[in-house]
Every structure is written in C-alpha cells, then in structure tokens.
Specification:
It contains twelve helices and 13 strands. By secondary structure, the protein is α/β, with parallel strands linked by helices. Strands 1-2-3-4-5-6-8-9 form an eight-stranded parallel β-barrel, surrounded by five helices. It has a two-stranded antiparallel sheet with strand order 10-11. A two-stranded antiparallel ribbon has the order 12-13. The longest helix has 28 residues. The relative contact order is 0.13. (3S,4R)-3-hydroxy-2-oxopiperidin-4-yl beta-D-xylopyranoside binds next to loops.
C-alpha cells in the first residue's frame, strides 16, 4: 500500500508511535475494565473497607472461612469482645476467643474493629448487679484492661454502644450505666483515649440512620458537644439494621455527611436488611460512598445462616455461600465509585487526590492506576472510518489521539491543519472540513504551508503524530 520510501519511513514512524499509543490505550482500557470482583477489593478501590462480623465458633467451618477470607478485609467479632466475653468475672479477663479472631483476621490480611467496651447489654452478671461509683469504676477498669490487651492491634473500637433511647425523644436510654451519671459516655471516651489515642474511638448505635429521627438528633448533638469540648471521639458507627419497620431512609446520606461535617469518620457497622432487598443494599452502599468520610461498610455476618436474623435472610450470601442479588448490587456500587469505569478527560491532568482517610493498612492499596497526565488522553469519541478502501465520503472530522496500524487500505482525516501535506496518502483526507481523495504528488489543491499535527484514524483506532513529510 505504500508507494515510495517516504511512505515506508512514515510507516515505521507511525508504527512505533502506534505501539506507544496502543500501550497507553491498553492502559486506559484496562482501567476501564478494572472492576473488582470481591467486596473488599471493590471497596478498597476508593480507600474503603468492606467487613463482616465473624463468630469464633465458626472458624472451623472451611466454607465459612474461605468465603469470608475471599470477600472481606475487615472483621468485627460478633460477640467475642463484648463485656460478658472479655470479663466474665470481675477483673478476670478472657481474650482467647477475641485473640483467635484477631489471629485469623491478621493472617488473612484483614483489620479488626473492636466491639464493644461499654454497653447496657451483654454485661456479665457481676456488672449487672453493680451501681453508682462501683459500676463507673468497673467500666473504667474494663475499658483500660481490654484496650491494653489489644493496643496497637485494632483499627477501631466501639467505645460506647447503643446509649440512646428508642422512645421518639433525643434522650439517653435508661440503663445501669446511665444511672451512674450523664457523663458516663464522655468518661468512657476519655478513658479509652488515655489508653490508646491512636485507635479510632467510635460511638455505635442503631436507628440513627434517619436524619429526621429524634434519636439521630440526640446522638448528633452529643457528638457535636463532644467535638466542641474536646472529648476524644473519632467516629460514629451506624449499625444499619434495616427491618420492615426501619428500612433505608432516603436521607441516610444526609445523616452521614452531617455527622462527618462535625469532624468524625462515619461507618456502616452491622448491616443487614430484611430479605436482602437489593434496592436498600445498593442505596445504603451509595450513601456511604457518596460521603468522603464514610470509611467502610460491615455486614453483620457472612451467610444468611450465620445471621442473628437468619429467619429474614438479610445478608449477601445464602446458606450455601452463593452470592445473592444484593451482593451484585453492592459490588456494582463500589466498583462504580472505585475506579471500575474511569473516564479520562482532557481537563483531568492533575494527579487524583484522596478525599477520605485510608483505613485498611494491608488492603487499601490502590488497584486502579491513577490518571496519567503525561500521556495522550482521549478527548473525543472515536470516529470509525471504513476500512477496506471504501473510505469516502469522510463525514466527520476527528481530533486526537488515534492509533494507526498501517495495515490494509486506510482512510485518514486531518483535524488540524498540517504543515506539509504531501503526496503519499491514499483514499481520503479531510482538512478543515474539506475532503480530498486520492491525493498524490504535488497536491496543489491542498492548503500550503500548514503547520501542526496530523491526526490519523484507521478503522476506528486512533493515533497522533507530528508528521512532516516532504
Ligand atoms: C448480636 C449478635 O449478632 C448475636 O449473636 C447476639 O446474640 C446478640 O448480639 N447490635 C449490636 C450487636 O451492637 O452487638 C448485636 O449483635 C446486634 C445489635
């Protein structure tokens, strides 16, 4: 197809250029198809984690552990770090089950959230019978001893769990801890911060997802007050147990962003949804990923059969470990945010900046490639030309960049005015909207003394080059 030496030289130049462009194109297209295939990897694309509650008693079930290790990168012991588990008798501590889960998590590259240090529920009987100063001191001692055992090993602690009432007010829940004085929550956080200031200290609760709910406002006002007075609190966990009576509120994202605006991270900590409604699962995931400080999502169990609400089949895997429709809905949302379908644009020439805080040390590595600013970036929609010789008329003018493989009969278009339009191309050339065909030696009909780049298309692939053929 090339009729003289100049064409061959150009062919070689084009060829190497095409190689470069093909590499860039493949980089771009691999980014475009870099959708992650597990929940943890998909969440990590945007620097988030995806976790599950883990039960120590199930670590011998290989179907359970294989599935959990494959899909998740954060673990919360479902019961093993609760007060009755870690301090069954006063000042006698038991960390065997918690350590077992931590070892399993660590050996699988996962981080762990501690749950929970101060709570009205699942207290050992000795604590249930305490009141006043004795209970306050027991709470402080418990926080100190349990946190000391895990210092440096956890990603977060739920310092206080479920301290607000469900009675349609902004009030605290009545409990033996509340009866020790309204400052018990503040004391718990200050105690925790004194043991390990570097771990995320969280307040965790349910039915605080709806921004309009009084309970939500009660917790919000507490966090606002804590931040104003310097009480150490780093995050708020939204349990996100959605049932028939409390399903995904449309303002969940507003709740998350409003809390985040107070200067705390937010997380979805115990997600389960009646019958694993796909719309609600996608919606709660979207609410999180839309908020920069929403650092991750944890579902409250692996398979439906593992759930504390197993009768409602509320999780992402069925009892046999099969992915449910809700799994796909969650994965798709995570991928849509995390770089699964990046769209490079001409204006996006600066390196991406991370707007949220990295959380999962072992797995928060970026798996997509940052947008490259030094290489050609596709700015237009490829315009296919006809191959095989039937190239005219050229109906539109493409810009940059293109690849060109030089094979077969080709059509090409010149989108900017070239310096020298010479004589070697065949078929169709368009310059500033004017089509030229079978241009050959001399081409006196072409604009003379034109400088610039040639933009060449071939069969729907594109490349650019500065070509000067004389
Ligand atoms: C649940 C566990 O899943 C059950 O195994 C246990 O019997 C009761 O507690 N809010 C919380 C979690 O903070 O600790 C609870 O976990 C569910 C509600």
């Amino acid at each position: 197809m090339f009729r003289n030496t100049k064409k061959s030289v150009l062919f070689v130049r084009l060829g190497s250029m095409v190689l470069l462009i093909a590499m860039v194109a493949s980089l771009i297209s691999s980014k475009a198809s870099a959708a992650a295939t597990t929940l943890g990897a998909a969440a990590a694309l945007s620097g988030r984690y995806f976790g599950t509650a883990i039960s120590n008693g199930k670590l011998g079930d290989s179907a359970y552990t294989t599935l959990a290790a494959r899909e998740f990168n954060m673990v919360t012991p479902e019961n093993e770090l609760k007060i009755d588990a870690t301090e069954p008798q006063q000042n006698v501590f038991s960390f065997t089950a918690g350590d077992s889960i931590l070892n399993w998590a660590t050996s699988h590259g996962m981080k762990m959230r501690g749950h929970t240090l101060a709570w009205h529920s699942q207290q050992p009987s000795w604590m249930q019978s305490l009141t006043g100063t004795a209970l306050r001191n027991a709470m402080i001692n418990h926080i100190q001893k349990v946190m000391a055992h895990y210092v440096g090993k956890l990603a977060a602690w739920d310092v206080v769990n479920e301290a607000y009432a469900d009675d349609g007010t902004q009030n605290r829940r009545q409990s033996n801890l509340q009866a020790t004085g309204n400052d018990w929550i503040e004391v718990a956080f200050r105690t925790a911060d004194a043991v390990e200031p570097g771990v995320r200290l969280c307040y965790n609760d349910y039915n605080i997802e709806n921004w309009s709910a009084a309970k939500t406002q009660g917790v919000y006002n507490m966090v606002k007050d804590f931040k104003a007075r310097g009480v150490p609190i780093d995050c708020v966990g939204f349990q996100t147990h959605f049932t028939g009576g409390s399903s995904l509120p449309s303002n969940f994202q507003t709740t998350l962003s409003s809390f985040a605006a107070l200067g705390v991270d937010v997380a979805l900590t115990e997600v389960d949804v009646t019958q694993a409604n796909t719309t609600q699962y996608a919606g709660l995931t979207q609410a999180c990923v839309n908020v920069a400080r929403c650092i991750g999502i944890t579902v409250w169990g692996v398979r439906d059969s593992d759930s504390w609400r197993s009768g409602e089949a509320p999780l992402l895997f069925d009892g046999s470990g099969n992915k449910k429709a809700a799994y796909t809905s969650v994965l798709n949302v995570l991928n849509s945010v995390g770089g699964g379908t990046p769209q490079p644009t001409a204006t996006n020439t600066t390196a991406p900046t991370r707007t949220n805080t990295p959380i999962v040390g072992a797995t928060a590595t970026r798996t997509s490639t940052p947008v490259i600013d030094a290489t050609p970036v596709r700015t237009n929609t490829p315009v296919a030309t006809t191959s095989g010789g039937a190239c005219s008329p050229v109906t539109s003018t493409v810009t940059a960049p293109f690849t060109f493989d030089g094979a077969g009969t080709f059509c090409w278009q010149i989108a900017t005015v070239p310096s020298y339009v010479n004589n070697w191309n065949n078929n169709a050339v368009s310059i500033n909207g004017t089509n030229y065909t079978n241009i050959y030696v001399g081409s006196s009909s072409l604009p003379a003394k034109i400088n610039g780049f040639y933009y060449i298309s071939y069969n729907g692939s594109f490349a650019w080059s500065h070509i000067e053929v004389r």
